[in-house]
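ok trying this again, last paste got cut off
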Amino acid sequence: MSRWLQQCPHCGYAAPSIAKAHPAAAAAVSAAPFRALIVDASHPPLARRFLAWAHVLEETGALHAAAEATLQAAWVADDGAKADLARAWRQEAVALWRSGPPLDAEQTVRVVDALRRAEAWEDAEATAAELARLSPPEAVGQVIALERRLVAAQDAGRHTVASALPPPARRPHVTHQRRDIAGGGFVAWVRRLLGR
């Protein structure tokens, strides 16, 4: 994550590439809220970089992208064991998502996950239930079902999307194949290879 964004050492502007800034970025970077944000020592430096990018995105109207950057700051807080900051930034990300254009089903899943991780149980369940009523695509429905189980258990932990989906019907990888340990091991394999 430390390589996802660049940051100007002079003005603090952060972006995936600082070679060319958004036209409205100069006004956002020179404003007092941005200046206060980049010097806030209570936030981890990497999180400040994501929050700085989120601030610029928000000021330029890219609210969903600002939500993603804010969520990434929460991930940094998770890694630094700063649970209060992670919860707060997830709530901010949700507010940004909801302030932007209408969300599709996959974005709504991200909102539900952020709410669950922020321990906003009632809001997470209500949002998940509303999405489930809309008959989303099967994979989205499976992830929402997992999110609802986690909300009911008040589980704010990390979970992968793969834990919500059933395993593939076919064997996509050699590790899924049965290994015959009792079949003689290495010596038997060499004998089979040499035809003896």
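PB: full thing came through this time. The beta strands are 6-7, 14-15.
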